[in-house]
Amino acid sequence: MNMLFFVVFVLFSLLILRLGFVQIVNGEDAKRQIERTDDVTVSTSVPRGIIYDRNHTQVVSNEPQRAIMYTAPKKFDQKQTLETAEKLAQMIEKDTGSITHRDKVDFWLMKHPEEALAKVTEEELDSLESNEIYKLQRERVTDEELASLTDDELEVLAIYREMTSGYALDPQFIKNKDVTLEELAVVSEHLYMLPGVDTTMDWDRTYLYGDSLKTILGIVKPGLPAEKLDYYEARGYSRNDRVGVSYIEMQYEDVLRGQKEKTKNITRSGEVLEKELLQEGQRGKDLVLSMDMELQMEIDKIIEEELKASKEKPGTNLLDRAFVTVMDPHTGEILALSGKQYSLDEDTNEYTFKDFAAGNFTTAYVPGSAIKGATVLSGYMTGVIKPGSYLIDEPIVLPSTPTMSSWFNSSRKMNINDTYAIVRSSNSYMFKLAIAMGDGQYKPGQLIMDKIKSFNQMRYHFSQFGLGIRTGIDLPGEQIGYKGNIEEAVAGNALHFAIGQYDSYTTLQLAQYISTIANGGYRMEPHVVKEIREPGDGDGTLGPIVKEIQPKVLNRIDATDKEIEHVQNAMWGVFHNNSIGTGRAFDAEPYRKYRAAGKTGTAETYDQGKKVWNLTLVGYAPFENPEIAFSVVVPSAYLDGYNDTGINSLIGKRVLKAYFDLKAERANNNADSNEDDETSDNQEENNEN
After folding, report:
1. Is residue 201 part of a domain?
2. Angle between helix 451-463 and helix 427-437 axes, rounded to 10 deg
3. Mean pLDDT over all residues of the chain?
4. Which of 279, 287, 325, 600 has its Cα between 20 and 30 A from that of 442?
5. 149 CB-side CA count, 13 A
6. Burial classification of residue 395, based on how many CB atoms lie within 10 Å of its CB (0-12 exposed, 13-18 middle, 19 or more buried)
């Protein structure tokens, strides 16, 4: 007993000595370790910048939304996180549509640890690494076991999935759409039992003009794109941040995103003790577009009405879309970019219109005669003709090839000049230019020419107008059109090129081409953003200008002023020569007063194995001092063998009328406003007297 007491005495003495050492020698260090806090800075997203049209009317804005948010602790606790998700599931409704098969498997294994362990043998436990064991367990979860997950459990999973989708101390939205006032109140009342959960306000993009221009404005999505994850994270984005993924929203992401709010989280043992605001957030800068939304909406309506009317005519089986680009030929500002697609809605089994404005620069079509102005100017620039030169318009007869001729002359020889060739749209004149640019010679049944030189000459000079190359528009995804293989082409294909029936071009390229002719030979860079501004004060007032997009000349074509004026006059004749002009419908009332000039186009091509005709139109107005240049493209307008629907000219005339009517209406409104102001001033002066 004495020995036992002695041993106990010694042990207690050692314990007391150890406790004394810890408390006296290491006590301060231990206390500091327990009380140690970590400072972690996190960033919170802010609303994106607002998008306005050129008249400062809001086009895209932000709509505030109630939201429930979760901030994960620095030290992850699976059990506590799951318990929080289960409590939260009883307070809110959470959509389960985003749950994947992998999510269900992982959740089932977490909820059934014993059954999960039974899915691997003891030999596998001893011989495999933990990650390999878990892989086997996932593979062995059956569909029947996954089907046992109840709707309530799936809702818990959907919440748990959001809570674990980001990094520690990185706020994640659990629900930020359709949060009811009741849900917000219940969660707010029980925050004490929901660690890491908070209620806040979020925002979403709202489009004030509905579907109009929707494809150009772009899409904003929550969550960083997987293929650009490193790129965005290196720039301070969180994984659940919204980001622009297409067109304007994507192109101007750095401008629209804004400055995040920065908060310092003070943590102890991984738990957040308090938050300190380091930097207030500022919503993104605003964009002012060059587009006129009133004009845009009117052109959208015109396209829809003309497409519907044309679809009632025979031979329009494949007609389903049309495009219009309107731009300022002197500045490159895009005033309207309209595209509509008429398609069958499989849900309602009815035909509906969808916005396809992006098709103006992402889809290309053979334009036909609309590009003959470029062909004639190419003839000038290569020196094969001069303004006023005459050539013989005659059928081109080649071996094993269908006879090629002008639409108005299938048999005889006509001596015509370049103006007549454009006004009446001579194919044969353009054929002769292509032959001359290839140092060729033609006689019935024989054609000798350097096809490669002819192609290269025309493509080089066409590119000066923006045909076949990028226009430079400030939007991603621009296409340059299809270029035929000139090595495999025959000499006759070079002749087809000269009349716009070989390479394909976008509607935007055609608008840049006619703008270059309209403004005297300068290829302007098109752009859809006019200004970048600081955020306004919230009452509709715009902030100061940060950057104004200036007109940019990309190049000047090699033609002389006299040569350009000669083609301009010919294009005037296309619209106003009542005997031979192919676009003389523009000389009728009320369109005559707009004093437009331009060129029509009809191109033979194939669609779904059937021969069809594309209809195009390019033009500008007024002739003396152009304010607008426009292009119209209607692919597969009618099947071969049916009558021309004329939809290109119908749309073009109405576009001109819409622009000038809107201009007149605004001028009258401004005059009335000035008159009211003057009357008010006079009344004040009389009152003072």
Report:
1. no
2. 110
3. 89
4. 600
5. 23
6. middle
Q: Give residues with Cβ within 8 angstroms of 466, minimum separation 6.
A: 509, 512, 513, 516, 523, 554
What is the per-residue pLDDT for 680? Answer: 59
Catalytic residue selected from 43, 45, 246, 369: 369
- Whether 307 is in a domain gets the answer yes
Which of helix, strand or coil describes residue 68?
strand
Sign of torsion over alpha carbons 15, 17, 22, 24: positive
- Name the pairing type of β-strands 286-289 and 529-533: antiparallel
Tell me the pairing of strands 51-52 and 286-289: parallel
Burial 56-75, CB ≥16 within 10 A → b, else e:
eebbbbbeebbbbbbbbbbe
Question: What pLDDT, on a 0 to 100 scale, did the predictor assign at position 610?
Answer: 96
How many domains are contained in the chain? 1
> What's the pLDDT at 221?
86
Ramachandran angles phi, psi of 326, nearest 5°: -125, 130
More confident residue, 14 or 471: 471
- Peptide bond just before 622 cis, omega within 30 deg: yes
Tell me the percentage of the chain whose pLDDT exceeds 90: 66
pLDDT at 168: 73
Nearest alpha carbon to residue 382 among 449, 451, 459: 459
**Residue that the structure tokens 């006296």 belong to:** 24
Q: Is residue 292 pLDDT above 90, yes or no?
A: yes
Instruction: Give yes or no for a contact between 495 and 434, defined as CB atoms under 8 angstroms apart.
Output: yes
Q: In this structure, what token pair is assigned to residue 458?
A: 């025309």
| CA–CA–CA angle 209, 215, 220 (5° rounding) | 90
Element (H, E) at 621: strand 610-621
Between 164 and 23, residue with greater pLDDT = 164
Most confident range (mean pLDDT) of 106-110, 135-139, 154-158, 456-460 is 456-460
Coil vs helix vs strand at 32: helix
pLDDT digits (tens, 9 = 90+) for 588-630: 999 999 999 999 999 999 999 999 999 999 999 999 999 999 9
Task: Please give the Cα distance from 394 to 404 (Å, whole number).
Answer: 9
For residue 379 the two structure tokens come to 């003839």
* AA letter at 542: L
User: Kind and range of the H or E element at 422?
Assistant: helix 418-423
Q: What is the DSSP letter of 21?
A: I
Q: Three-class SS of residue 393?
A: strand
d(CA 175, CA 168): 18
Count of alpha carbons within 13 angstroms of residue 182, beta-carbon side: 4
Specify if 606 maps to a domain: yes
- The residue among 188, 208, 474 whose CA lies nearest residue 337 is 474
**End-to-end distance of the chain based on CA atoms, in angstroms?**
123
Contact 441, 456 (CB under 8 A): no
Of 226-235, 457-466, 478-487, minimum mean pLDDT range = 226-235
Domain hosting residue 356, numbered range: 294-534+545-666
- Are the C-beta atoms of 498 and 434 separated by less than 8 Å? yes
Residues 333/327, Cβ–Cβ less than 8 Å? yes
CB atoms within 10 A of CB 9: 10
**369 given a catalytic annotation:** yes
In a domain, residue 437? The reply is yes
Q: Kindly report the CATH number assigned to the domain that includes residue 616.
A: 3.40.710.10
In whole angstroms, give the CA distance from residue 661 to residue 295. Answer: 10
Average of per-residue pLDDT across 410-431: 96
Q: What three-state secondary structure class fits 491?
A: helix
pLDDT at 40 over 70: no
